[in-house]
Amino acid sequence: MGVWEQETRFEYALKVGTYKTKSYLHFMDWQAQRAIDRLFETGKPTVIIHDNASIHCAKLAKQRHYIWSKQGLSLFFLPPYSPEMNRIEEQWLHLKRQELGGYVFEDEYDLAVAIIEGIENRGQQGNYLVERLMFN
């Protein structure tokens, strides 16, 4: 799960296993706190583009949309079946092809480490900030 601002930053969370609504809410609460800070510093709101994944549309998530909007975080939902409109999909594709392509991983842990290293490498190459939310 990640937030990409071209040539500026990539903030993400990595979870071994399946993302559930609770993890999504944790990530978005983190983003909302960052949005408050950006709004205060720059006067500009933060907009995050979402596809229509079930965790994005869950009842608990919908209940938080209003709270997040008051924190300067707006959500824009893409039309169904239009991943090409979501710029972060390009980043995931490049990560898969350039950083992870051709490797076989022993387990999910090894894959997770490779993803972290790949994202860090892409950040260094692109000269942008990379930050990861650590789930407890």
What Rg do the Cα atoms give? Answer: 15 Å
CATH level 1 class label: Alpha Beta
CATH fold description: Nucleotidyltransferase, domain 5
The percent range for strand residues is 15-25%
Distance between the termini: 16 Å
Tally of structural domains: 1
Mean pLDDT, nearest integer? 91
The fourth-level CATH homologous superfamily is Ribonuclease H-like superfamily/Ribonuclease H
Judged by helices, strands and strand pairing, the structural class is alpha/beta
Q: Give the topology string: H per helix, E per strand.
A: EEHEHHEHHE
CATH architecture: 2-Layer Sandwich
| Sheet with most strands: strand arrangement | 1-2-5
How would you describe this structure to a colleague?
The protein is an alpha/beta fold and 136 residues long. 51% of the residues lie in helices and 18% in strands. It has one domain: 2-Layer Sandwich (Nucleotidyltransferase, domain 5), CATH 3.30.420.10.
What can be said about this structure in brief?
The chain has five helices and five strands; from the N terminus they run ββαβααβααβ.
Outline the secondary-structure elements.
Layout: E1 2-5, E2 9-13, H1 21-42, E3 46-50, H2 54-57, H3 59-70, E4 73-77, H4 88-99, H5 108-126, E5 129-133
Parallel strand pairs: 2-5, 3-4
Antiparallel strand pairs: 1-2
Helix pairs in contact: 1-3
Give descriptors for this structure:
136 residues; alpha/beta; Nucleotidyltransferase, domain 5; three-stranded mixed β-sheet; two-stranded parallel ribbon; 5 helices; globular
